[in-house]
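Ticket #4471: structure export looks truncated?
Reporter: QA, pipeline team
Priority: medium

Steps to reproduce: submit the single chain below to the structure queue and open the exported record.
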Amino acid sequence: MHRHPGPGYPEREYRVRRCLRVVLTEEVEHLRYAVRDLAMLARDEA
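Actual output as written to the record:
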């Protein structure tokens, strides 16, 4: 079964491992920034 990507995406296949790596990397980066920002907010309130 071949799914067509949305508009603007290249017509090619991606390995599951690559997709998971991208998703997990994004999650780690979001967590990093959230922890950093929360620490700055907590420091400003103290």
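Status: closed, not a bug. The export was complete when the record was re-opened. Leaving a note from the reviewer for reference: The CA atoms of residues 18 and 29 lie 17 Å apart.
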